[in-house]
Amino acid sequence: xxxxxxxxxxxxxxxxxxxxxxxxxxxxxxxxxxxxxxxxxxxxxxxxxxxxxxxxxxxxxxxxxxxxxxxxxxxxxxxxxxxxxxxxxxxxxxxxxxxxxxxxxxxxxxxxxxxxxxxxxxxxxxxxxxxxxxxxxxxxxxxxxxxxxxxxxxxxxxxxxxxxxxxxxxxxxxxxxxxxxxxxxxxxxxxxxxxxxxxxxxxxxxxxxxxxxxxxxxxxxxxxxxxxxxxxxxxxxxxxxxxxxxxxxxxxxxxxxxxxxxxxxxxxxxxxxxxxxxxxxxxxxxxxxxxxxxxxxxxxxxxxxxxx
Length: 308
Prior knowledge:
The protein is an alpha/beta fold. The protein folds into two domains: 3-194, 3-Layer(aba) Sandwich (Rossmann fold), CATH 3.40.50; 203-295, Methionyl-tRNA Fmet Formyltransferase, Chain A, domain 2 (Roll). Helices cover 22% and strands 27% of the residues. The strands form three sheets. The protein has a seven-stranded mixed sheet. Strands 10, 11, 12, 13, 14 and 15 form a six-stranded antiparallel sheet that branches. It has a two-stranded antiparallel ribbon with strand order 3-4. Helix 1 (13-18) links the parallel strand 1 (3-6) and strand 2. Helix 4 runs antiparallel to helix 6. The longest helix has 26 residues, at 157-182. The protein is elongated and about 70 Å long.
């Protein structure tokens, strides 16, 4: 089986490693400049492919002619995992058997680019992995395989992504073996009427509204732990929050007011309940536990976190 593997993010590494012996080429997005020096940094999947001496094709869009260099590998199957571009039909029609996509949600729920963050943001207790037969529409193809995974209360976007990536790598070889044996990709049509969509995450989505419930704010912290990181302002400086817990108690204080500091963390009034900040980072300072921060930042009790 000749496979062309499409990916850009590190989420795909377990899947890549699971089928590396069949991968003839990797297609990935071109790197974007990062940091003050605007250095170009290769994607994790490109680094892996180069370690295995697998050819890599880098593109910004499918209008670039170099994408057709994949024809020389006589592909039977495209495998797409966290790629970041919608693949047009003329490209999907290239492999002799077809194309499959590994998506980290229970499709048709949470289609789009950020399903892991959004299931956490919405407080879901379950998510999963869906492998679909691809068509030219976003995450709308027939379901070839689907598996449910529980979301634990302690999970955040990092831990949940790791679990889903690992399980995807375990499942993919079996799905591909079945496709190879049957010589075709068969699946069950999605109920498009039940489809929900996730947007691209923007920095401003991380700004905390303290009028929301403590539970909703905690879910924001869990969802945005990698980027943009849930944040607020204190004394006109950005304060990022990495870990938090909740207390379901009523307090007679305005949302955003710091009501106590103890070894469990910094306790903040919200629209419903109390948020306990456990780990944070003040602008210009290192990341640390909240109690240690409070010991060096006197007069916190009674202060109010600002919205800007």
